[in-house]
# Entry
Amino acid sequence: MKPLFKDTLKVVNVGLAGFGDNVSAAGGECIATTWQPPALGDRDAAWALGRSFAHPHIEGANRTAFARFLEAHPVLIDVALARDAIPAMASGRRLIMHAGPPIAWPAMCGPMRGAILGATLLEGWADTMDAAQRLVASGDLALEPNHHHGAVGPMAGIISPSMPLFVVENKRGGNRAYSNFNEGLGKVLRFGANDAAVLERLRFIAREVAAGVSAALARLGGIELKPLMAQALTMGDEVHNRNAAATSLLFKLLAPALFASDVPRERAAATLEFIARNDHFFLNLSMAACKSMLDAAAGVPASSLVTAMSRNGVNFGVRLSGTGDRWFEAPANPVDGLYFPGYSRDDAAADLGDSSITETAGVGGFAMAAAPAIVKFVGGSATDALHHSLRMRSITMGSNPTFTLPALDFAPAAAGIDARKVVDRGILPVINSGIAHREAGVGQIGAGITSAPMACFSAAVVALMRGLEAQ
# Structure
């Protein structure tokens, strides 16, 4: 003991920082840790977590689910109207689908309400905004999450029967996923805008763009999406908030096929011009590809693999492979980022959209190391982008060898979020996201970084263990 107190003390401090301050003040060296109890001190969740790591079936189930995810082979095979692709719409049912977990009309955020009213007018179910509001408020329209129908959409994520959808099929498992077409920037439906110009753009997309893409696909016989996404990652995209390379690669495939089709030249040119002017055009395809990969891994009993993360502008929801279609929800976090001039966090809606399906699949925020330029849009530095990609390795089951990150010596991107590791290590999945104004129709007011609430993962782990132990 005497030599110990004669030498300079070197202390690792676990707990309040003030303890370490006293050591430093006395001339010692102190390393502070950021340790905290798992599940933010939730005793039930921590106890469930401990039991989960000792459970005999979870590891095997996770290997099965993760293998199915990695083996998935998403291919864009078709373009179809929602009423023809979504069985729940086939009977003429008045259904509007939206982003995030389930939410009732009165509780919805401004952008989602505005987008639903716009879709109601687009479908001809009402001819004035007042009539549309009365119709939706009456409950005569069904409002259901995209995820309940194998679909995804950015921001408000609205899909109504007359909208064209990308049809993506996992050629290994046969499951299909759908997404709407990206409208571009400005005042658009996904941010809650719903005036005549917005509706006319949607009609143009259905009439010209969807028809053009469909004609090109007929000649191409489908487009494999994983190789295209992998190439885009090596060209500076992360295929969530930066899709410039992916859209360009898609354009190169579509243009020759479209001009070789029977589509009149001027109509083909209009389709290609729309795509060329919209760097985010590929986003919706990236989302559908990720959805198809994760749905391939869904429904594996005992698996703690996260198969969906999504937000409706009020709540954040998470699903696990081993808990079926159940959502685990908590209030959505604000987005910490860069705001356009004249706007601040006080103007923003809470986190919104299905686009976090990209992070769930190991791209987007998980692959920010591939897209250092994204920090000019969402805030931070290129070093932060690298840090985000490295940190996500702590909460995943492995990595995806298809998606490599040049800035990390082409290391594979972390993939396969394990809800148990999130709770155990206190590290939340990083998500980069656009920021919507809280009022309908104003549009995007910035972009930044956010994460899922810990409560979602804690509740999911508790439910997984209760289900296993009840068997």
